[in-house]
Amino acid sequence: MKARLLFLAVMGCAFAGALTHSQSQNDTEELPSPVIYPPQRIALRMDHSHPQHVRLRCERCHEGATDSTRSAESLIPREASCAPCHDAQTDRERPSADRCGYCHVGSDGTDIVASEFPPPRIHFSHRQHAREGVRCLDCHEDVQHRQTATARDLPTMESCWRCHGTAGLGGDEASGECSVCHVSTPDGTLQTRFGDAELLPPRWLHGMDHDRDFLVRHRWVAADRGELCAECHTESECVACHDGRVRPSSIHPADFLTNHGPMARRDEHRCSSCHTTQRFCTECHSRLGLSPMAAPVARAGARFHPPSFVDAHGIEARRSMTTCTSCHAERDCVVCHGARGIGAGLSPHAPGYVARCKDDYRRNPRACTTCHGPAIDTRCR
């Protein structure tokens, strides 16, 4: 019966391939990234653990590996490399089904199924690593114990980081620059989209795993490792999100800069799940001159209220109370306009209001007691 063709979702080590970047969200698996190495079809039989194969140097079968400078170069052993040791199995006098099927999966002697090895999406030079004394088994660990080599025999980004991410190392030998290995776009950032696949950093890399919690965690990562964020993201992406153009409306609705004050007072715990009052809020308000802690220059800049605003603020408040409440609370009004406040006598009521005050009281007594206190109950009933 014709053997079933095996489709592998990961690259086999038969491709003696390039260094790979781990994209897996589950770091415990420690598998190479299927984004860097697209799914391949391996229709070959090869027992790396065979005693005769273990004795051979890798370059004996993977010819040209130590001279390869591009990851796209195919290093799969050719028939000519295998023939000197497998003359008996490849003898032309043998039936084609036995001869071809010895190495090729799915072959019945007339239809040889081809393997497919898409080029990896990464820069890598085997020659440079060989010249630096890096052995094949330093990256392709335990391959000598495998039969058909699979993705588990390829190096992960974490294994590459042992040299490329070590503090103090630099230069061409073990540069930690992302673009040394990863493909870049014309604007200089890394290419993270490859069709439907997206390349994401692993959690072990300074907590940069883009999981569901990263929405909250990313501000700390960006503060500590902004240069790493800039490898993939531009400042315009940050601005587009933080000024509300692409930010999910379920988190911060439109015009949130104006409305965030009353929202914060109404649901402080929700805000504090991402933002800290002492650091995030105070720093911003001080910088904009909205806090007594702001520098005198910022407070005196009349950035928000010109000197004549005291006379016009009533008109502005009636025109857009939401704008006022983004910074001010009800108590700020009561300080001046309340009957018992420091500005007692600065009535917000128009002349002749006393004649209709009882009607307003019956419609909304709370509005009256806010300034006049409980005593207003006895006067307006």
Walk me through the structure.
- The chain is 35% helix and 2% strand.
- The chain has 381 residues and is mainly α.
- The chain has three domains: 1-200, no CATH class; 253-328, no CATH class; 336-380, no CATH class.
- The radius of gyration is 35 Å and the shape is rod-shaped.
- It starts with 6 loop residues before the first strand and ends with a helix.
In short:
With 381 residues, this protein is an all-alpha fold. The chain has helices at 51-54, 58-61, 79-82, 96-101, 126-131, 136-139, 157-164, 214-224, 226-229, 235-242, 256-266, 268-272, 277-287, 296-299, 309-319, 321-325, 330-337, 357-363, 365-372, 376-380; strands spanning 7-8, 40-41, 193-194, 197-198. Strands 1-2 form a two-stranded antiparallel sheet.
Strand residue content: under 5%
> In total, how many beta strands?
4
Number of H/I helices = 20
Rounded average pLDDT: 75
| Sheet with most strands | 2 strands, antiparallel
Query: How many domains, in number, for the residues?
Result: 3
Q: What share of residues is helical? A: 25-40%
- Biggest sheet, spatial arrangement of strands: 1-2
Computed Rg: 35 Å
> Can you tell me the overall shape?
rod-shaped
Calculate the terminal CA-CA distance, rounded to whole Å: 99 Å
User: Helices and strands, in N-to-C order?
Assistant: EEHHHHHHHEEHHHHHHHHHHHHH
